[in-house]
Structure to design on (766 residues):
């Protein structure tokens, strides 16, 4: 494998045609300015790294942007998306005014009229069909205060728990896995672990394209021989060329690989016995969990105690040679990986992202990765631990989700009477108003449309009519007229196409916000420019609807001050040191704080030297999220995927992210430079497969799955190189919909769909 240092990596980024440089200020609009440029600080909004940026404001417009050299995440760097991000504010087709569909066409209306229609329809739907007939689907673009207002409106005012966000598609398995393993959601460490680690192991994570600034930090450490970067992955990507060693495994084999590594650690007596005895317990759960294909996708898991002996017996099935037919990894490589993890002289950080979480056993895989670190006692300490990256900004990384998940409250769980009482007390409502039954998660909301169970749906800042798996099914469901659909967004999308009412959303610099990143940093973002037309924050739109529904008492906040007011109320849920939130005053003007944070931040959670919530009497660590103050090693078996390849559909299809685009591209496709660099989707094939099929670069091919087909150009040896029998399609293109092919199987514990494996056939289009 060729090697790449940081300088080469920057050149590779530039070679996309999307960026000439990363460090200098870039004028992003041009022409006709009078005032001097004033530089203001803000976090970038296009991925979960949350890079600190300096935005140049002139004449009320954002005209330039550069990395903030003092920002902890990026230290002055930015990737191509961040570098051109301000252009996404000024797309020519920006939604400026409210619209209502009349005779099949969306027509402009006064904002107040749209609010009246939405409120009337919402009230009538609840009256006629009950509170379970209304649902809200939010976004990873949300500010924490948007999420808080949404949760309060739906759960506290309407009494419906049918609320979820697009983060379900990216990070739900990481959240469920962490909660199951260490008892708390969100990473125990932070991005700073990169500089403390001796070894980073990337798990099926093309970090060069998904989190390029963090990859750059790794390469900088590697350049000075202080860090080795290892990759386990199902395909060769741009990341593979820049690191020390890349090991291929078979699609879906993660659990078998993890258990094989653990088996080797145990067999070689490299377990940290002292850590296990003091800080770990063993658990097993239900194994007949299905694939979430029908019915409720979130299956309750009932943990049962297990013993060390049971765990050792369990691992016996995964000895490296025995599991090789599943993993595709040579036994000597498993031994080598085990020795890296177990070496007492090395600090090891495991890093992964959406591609690993998008797995029909995603929660179990996340549990398994924690297992490795718990077995050798390398967790929750500088350079030792796990760092799941989430893909989406904001909500995906808002470690406590402000009550915008189907089973959550701003603190705690709807099933817990004490948590409902706390919410009711802070909200000033009768606790009986809060439904004690968790609501529908993302796929279940859209399946509810199919069955006419969901009759009112409000979508905020996300594009499910492109991003849902098995898309034809959900597009058919949304095309029916039994559900009234409201969409708030900044740009027209395939989802505004199905809306009955569209509301104009303010984005990024146009509104004040508090955001969280994947490294637990909470950052304040000030309003710097005016939103276009009638655009407003999602929270402002929801507050207006709440007032029209008669809930003005619950939302006594103004458009100008609602962020501070709702943040202050949200903070009342989090007075405990384990989840404490800083004041807005502490965040304003600064570069953020690692949550939990009061006057100071928490660098490593559950580590008694760093976390004020951890009890020093328990030794170096206190996993207080579990009642017995121990982390759990789970006995989660490898199980086959929901769908397999066969003679008719012989290729594995994976889908995902490219450097130049975020999500479904609704923002990044409005940035001319990025759109020109990667204007449409393509399918990457292995060179030998392509040769056998008579396919070259640019050949038009048809991909066919058991659910649908798409046509698109082929790419061979251009960017990523799938292994033989695999193909990859980026998912940002709303004109070439890879999700017409994907299967809506999901992890039944987290509800996160598996976008990484479905069976397809490849045909040359003649
Ligand atoms: S790495 Fe993410 S946060 Fe940083 S500049 Fe790029 S898109 Fe923005």
């Amino acid at each position: 494998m060729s090697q790449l240092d940081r300088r080469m990596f920057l050149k590779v980024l530039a070679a996309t045609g999307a960026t000439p440089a990363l460090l200098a200020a870039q004028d992003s609009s041009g022409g006709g300015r009078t005032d001097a440029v004033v530089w203001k600080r803000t976090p970038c909004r296009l991925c979960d790294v949350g890079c600190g940026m300096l935005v140049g404001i002139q004449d009320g417009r954002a005209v330039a942007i550069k990395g903030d050299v003092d920002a902890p995440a990026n230290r002055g760097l930015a990737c191509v998306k961040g570098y051109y991000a301000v252009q996404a504010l000024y797309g020519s087709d920006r939604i400026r005014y409210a619209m209502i569909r009349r005779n099949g066409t969306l027509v402009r209306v006064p904002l107040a009229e749209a609010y009246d229609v939405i409120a009337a329809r919402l009230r009538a739907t609840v009256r006629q069909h009950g509170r379970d007939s209304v649902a809200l689907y939010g976004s990873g673009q949300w500010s924490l205060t948007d999420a808080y207002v949404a949760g309060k409106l739906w759960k506290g005012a309407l009494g419906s728990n049918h609320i979820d966000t697009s983060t379900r598609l990216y990070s739900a398995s990481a959240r469920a896995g962490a909660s199951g393993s260490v008892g708390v959601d969100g990473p125990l460490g932070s991005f700073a672990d990169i500089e403390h680690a001796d070894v980073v192991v990337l798990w099926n994570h093309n970090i060069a394209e998904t989190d390029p600034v963090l990859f750059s930090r790794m390469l900088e450490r590697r350049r000075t021989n202080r860090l080795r970067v290892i990759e386990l992955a199902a395909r060769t990507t741009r990341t593979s060329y820049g690191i020390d060693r890349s090991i291929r495994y078979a699609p879906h084999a993660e659990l078998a690989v993890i258990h094989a590594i653990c088996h080797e650690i145990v067999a070689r007596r490299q377990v940290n016995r002292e850590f296990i005895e003091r800080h770990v317990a063993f658990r097993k759960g239900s194994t007949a969990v299905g694939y979430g294909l029908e019915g409720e996708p979130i299956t309750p898991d009932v943990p049962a105690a297990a013993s060390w002996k049971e765990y050792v017996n369990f691992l016996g099935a995964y000895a490296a040679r025995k599991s090789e037919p599943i993993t595709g990894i040579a036994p000597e490589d498993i031994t080598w990986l085990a020795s890296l993890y177990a070496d007492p002289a090395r600090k090891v950080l495991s890093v992964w992202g959406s591609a690993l979480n998008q797995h029909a056993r995603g929660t179990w895989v996340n549990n398994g990765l924690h297992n490795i670190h718990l077995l050798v006692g390398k967790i929750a300490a500088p350079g030792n631990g796990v760092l799941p990256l989430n893909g989406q900004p904001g909500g995906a990384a808002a470690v406590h989700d402000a009550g915008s998940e189907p089973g959550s409250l701003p603190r705690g769980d709807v099933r817990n009477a004490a948590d409902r009482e706390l919410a009711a007390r802070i909200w000033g409502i009768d606790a009986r108003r809060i439904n004690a039954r968790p609501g529908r998660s993302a796929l279940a909301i859209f399946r509810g449309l199919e069955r006419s169970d969901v009759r009112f749906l409000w979508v905020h800042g996300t594009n499910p009519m492109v991003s849902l798996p098995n898309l034809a099914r959900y597009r058919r469901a949304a095309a029916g007229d039994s559900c009234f659909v409201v969409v708030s967004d900044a740009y027209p999308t395939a989802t505004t196409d199905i809306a009955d009412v569209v509301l104009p959303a303010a984005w990024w610099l146009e509104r004040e916000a508090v955001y969280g990143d994947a490294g637990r940093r909470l950052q304040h973002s000030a309003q710097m420019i005016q939103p276009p037309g009638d655009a407003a924050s999602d929270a402002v739109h929801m507050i207006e609807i709440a007032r029209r529904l008669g809930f003005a008492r619950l939302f006594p906040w103004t458009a100008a001050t609602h962020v501070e007011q709702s943040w202050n109320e949200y903070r009342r849920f989090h007075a405990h040191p384990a989840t404490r939130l800083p004041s807005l005053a502490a965040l304003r003007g600064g570069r953020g704080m690692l949550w939990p944070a009061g006057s100071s931040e928490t660098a490593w959670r559950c580590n008694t030297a760093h976390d004020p919530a951890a009890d020093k009497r328990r030794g170096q660590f206190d996993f207080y999220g579990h009642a017995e103050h121990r982390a759990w090693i789970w006995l989660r078996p490898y199980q086959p995927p929901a769908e397999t390849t066969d003679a008719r559909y012989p290729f594995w299809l994976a889908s995902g992210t490219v450097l130049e685009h975020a999500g479904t591209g609704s923002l990044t496709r409005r940035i001319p430079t990025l759109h020109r660099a990667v204007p449409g989707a393509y399918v990457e094939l292995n060179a030998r497969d392509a040769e056998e099929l008579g396919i070259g670069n640019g050949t038009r091919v048809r991909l066919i799955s058991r659910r649908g087909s798409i046509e698109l150009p082929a790419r061979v040896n251009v960017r990523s190189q799938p292994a033989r029998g695999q193909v990859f399609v980026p998912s940002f293109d709303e004109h070439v919909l890879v999700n017409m092919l994907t299967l809506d199987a999901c992890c039944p514990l987290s509800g996160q769909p598996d976008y990484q494996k479905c069976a397809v056939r490849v045909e040359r289009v003649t």
